[in-house]
Amino acid sequence: MTKDHDDGLPDPAHRRPEGMSERTVEALGALSKALETTERARGHLYSFHQLTGTADFQLDEAVRLLHEAGHPEEAERVRAELVARDVTPGHWTFQLVEEYEDTYYRPFTAVETELTDRLAQGRRHLHEAELKRRRRS
Q1: For residues 49 and 99, is the Cβ–Cβ distance under 8 A?
Q2: Structural domain includes residue 4
Q3: Is residue 7 part of a domain?
Q4: Alpha helix (H) ranges present in the chain?
């Protein structure tokens, strides 16, 4: 393991600005952690979107096979009730993704960026950088 610099301090982009309190570093660290959790949730939402779309296209195969197996009524029921069905009234998954992006994700990232810029001079992950330094000491 090597230190970032010979003085054992993090690189300048990850050093606490002069006068910044420990509590502010902790608060921005908590905000960053919350954003990371939101990023994971967003990824799951995209997985939900893609998996639901894949399932919808797989229904075409089920409909075809039901027809071939001599079950036209059942095939029609699957086609009529499930193929291209809204996941919530009036919405497909891409619309849920767009709503999440517009009403939650983008405002979240904007606030996190604004506070990091204002309180930490844009220096990101200060809490983690200080943890790295302490753990290597």
Answers
A1: no
A2: no
A3: no
A4: 22-68, 72-81, 93-100, 106-120, 126-136
Q: Token pair 């619309």 is at which residue?
A: 95
Give the chain's radius of gyration (CA, Å): 25
What domain range includes position 77? 20-136
In a domain, 37, yes or no: yes
Residues 65-75 have pLDDT tens digits of: 999 999 999 99
Contacts of 127 (CB under 8 A, 6+ apart): 25, 26, 28, 29, 32
Number of domains in the chain: 1
**Cβ neighbours of residue 83 closer than 8 Å, sequence gap 6 or more:** 56, 59, 60, 63
pLDDT single digits (tens) 4-46: 454 566 688 999 999 999 999 999 999 999 999 999 999 999 9
**Both tokens of residue 113?**
């960026």
Q: Is residue 12 part of a domain?
A: no
Question: For the whole model, what pTM was predicted?
Answer: 0.83
Burial environment of residue 79 by CB neighbours within 10 A (0 to 12, 13 to 18, 19 or more)? middle
The neighbouring-strand residues paired with 88 are: 91
Q: How far apart are CA 103 and CA 71, in angstroms?
A: 45
